[in-house]
Amino acid sequence: MTTSRPNSPIKQNRLGRDGFEVSSLGFGGWALGGQWGVQDDSESVAALEKAIASGINFIDTAPGYGDGRSEHVIADMLSQLPPQVRETLHVATKTPPSAGPWPPSPYCRWQDRYSAAYIRSNVEERLKNLKTDCLDLLQLHTWTRAWNDDPQPLLVLQKLREEGKIRKIGVCTPEQDQNCVVQLMRDGLVDVVQIVFNLFEQEPAAQLLPVAEETGTGVIVRVSLDEGGLTGKYGADHQFPDDDFRSTYFGGDRMQRTADRVAEISADLEDLGLTDDYSLADAAIKFSQSHPAVSTVIVGMRNPEQAAKNVAAAGLPDFTPEVLQRLRRHQWLRGVWYGGK
């Protein structure tokens, strides 16, 4: 097993005002659960090993990623590392709401979705799966603005933090209302927010990211590659297997429309003279890293080759203000995919 960590091109940022140091590129563990098509655990372990050896020290997972499979693979792999390496790594996981609509509707009561008993039971399961006594970061996997004025689930997490079960508290934004966390940040109820911020989805730059910077809230960016759409690997007629969640994400004419938009981004990169140094995926990652409020950008890595490519992208020079201004024109007000638009 490779455990050496040479000088890495990946920068380190603080996860919030008083948070721990995290790599500016993080390891996204969704595919390790098997919902992005067939995934061999040995490939998952190899990807983790390559990422860690390359300087990545932040790993994000969730119980919903293969009914705990991703958590187990990560925990088993980390348990084999020397203590001096393991103690430098940080793992974030999530507690989903109990059974009901996803994301929670405006009519959902927190008592039915995130009761104190449910949260405590779920956190104990996370601790067991990850083979630890304290979670570095526990995120509620989704939220609704309906609970902002009575955010009892977050107060339960505060108690668990006082009990030493959790170090940091976070919320993953619901895609259709990411700004619902602005009030939570201003009220000091979260240490970290996990958001969607990419070449297509730029709304967080309006208020969410400035408020995070103002309040010292850590920011994790997910979906920087738009679930693979921004890599340029998939043509307009590409179809994903039924066991890959993207078969639904890019259902109907969505792949066609995505490919058309990606072609426009590619043309801009060529016009800017960047195509020799930045692939489409590189440009997408660098854009997601571009706002000063962003602590880390998590990207899915299914094998060592993907890990190496993502690490190389993170090490590329930051975009100039002029390049960022040009790329901002690709904001796409498409609504939320699962909303049927």
From TrEMBL:
GO terms for cellular component: cytosol. Transmembrane segments: none annotated. Pfam families: Aldo_ket_red. It comes from the Bacteria. Residues 25-330 form the NADP-dependent oxidoreductase domain. InterPro entries: AKR, NAD(P)_OxRdtase_dom_sf, NADP_OxRdtase_dom. GO terms for molecular function: oxidoreductase activity. This is Aryl-alcohol dehydrogenase-like predicted oxidoreductase.
